[in-house]
C-alpha cells in the first residue's frame, strides 16, 4: 500500500491493528504517522495512550505488555517502534507472535527503511496488519511540498530558486522542508526566495552552510564553528548575513535565559520561531535545541557578545 491508499482508508476510519511503515521517504512517513496519531489519540490523553520506543535498545517484551493495556478513556492505544529494521531476530519473533492475536484496542506501528520480506516478522504484518511503502519522492511531490510551504508562510520561491531546490533535495522531502524553513528565516522580511538565497543557505555543493555554523556555535564546538566560518567567508558568503543571524541567535538565547531554568519548549517557539505551531513536533525539537544551547552559555558571555555584535 502507498501513502495515498493509507490516508484514504484512514479517512474512512479503517484502522489496522498493526502497520509496518517501510521506505526512505522519511518526511511522508512522518506525515502519515502524524495523521494516524491525530485520528486515534486525543491530545488530552496522549500521555496515557501513546508510547514511543526505539530499537534496538527497546524491550519488545515491554512493548507487547504495553500493547496489552486497555486505553484510558479513548478507543485506541498507539504504540510506535522506531528503527524496527534494527531489531534482532529474537525480538522480531516476539512481535510476530504478538501479531497472531493482536489486541483490538491497540495499534502498533513499526518504522524502518528496509525489511527482509522473507522473514516471519514481515509476513506477520502482511497477514494481520498493513504494510505501507514510502518510496523516494519525485518532482511532483517535491513541488507540492514547496507550494504548501509557500502558501502557509506567504512567501514565493522564484523559478530559478525552485530549480535549485529540486536539483539538490528532490529525493528527500524531509531535507527539503528543513531547507525551506531555513530560507524563510533567512530572507525575512523579504517575500521572495531567490536562487542566490538557496545557494547561500545550502552551500556550494556539499560544503556546510550558515546554519551548520550556527548549530556548531550553539553547541559551543568553537573549533569546528570557526573552521566552517572560514569556509563560508572563503566561499564568498556575505559577512552581513552571518552577522544578522548571529545577532538573532544571541537575542534568542538571552530571552530564553530570562524565562528561568524551567522553561518549556512551547514557550520558546514564539521567541525563536514566531508564527510557528507550538504543538508541532519539529518546532518543539528545534526549541529544545535552543534550550540546551542557552544552558551552554553564561549570561555574562552572551552580554559580551552583545557588545561585540551591536
Strands, total number: 7
Shape: globular
Based on the structure given, which CATH architecture of the largest domain is correct? 3-Layer(aba) Sandwich
CATH homologous superfamily placement of the largest domain: P-loop containing nucleotide triphosphate hydrolases
Q: Report the span from N to C terminus.
A: 55 Å
Overall domain count: 3
Low-confidence stretches: none
Question: Can you characterise this structure?
Answer:
Strand 2, helix 4 and strand 3 form a beta-alpha-beta unit. The protein contains 16 helices and seven strands. The chain has three domains: 132 residues, 3-Layer(aba) Sandwich (Rossmann fold), CATH 3.40.50.300; 66 residues, Helicase, Ruva Protein, domain 3; 73 residues, no CATH class. The longest helix has 20 residues. The protein is of the alpha/beta class. The protein is 58% helix and 11% strand. The strands form two sheets. It has a five-stranded parallel sheet, with helices on both faces. Strands 6-7 form a two-stranded parallel sheet.
Strand and helix layout:
Blueprint lengths: L2 H9 L6 E6 L2 H15 L5 H4 E5 L5 H8 L9 E6 L6 H10 L7 E7 L7 H9 L1 E5 L4 H15 L2 E2 L1 H11 L3 H15 L4 E2 L1 H8 L7 H9 L3 H13 L4 H20 L6 H8 L8 H16 L2 H11 L1
Parallel strand pairs: 1-4, 1-5, 2-3, 3-4, 6-7
Helix pairs in contact: 1-2, 5-6, 7-9, 8-10, 9-10, 11-12, 13-15, 13-16, 14-15
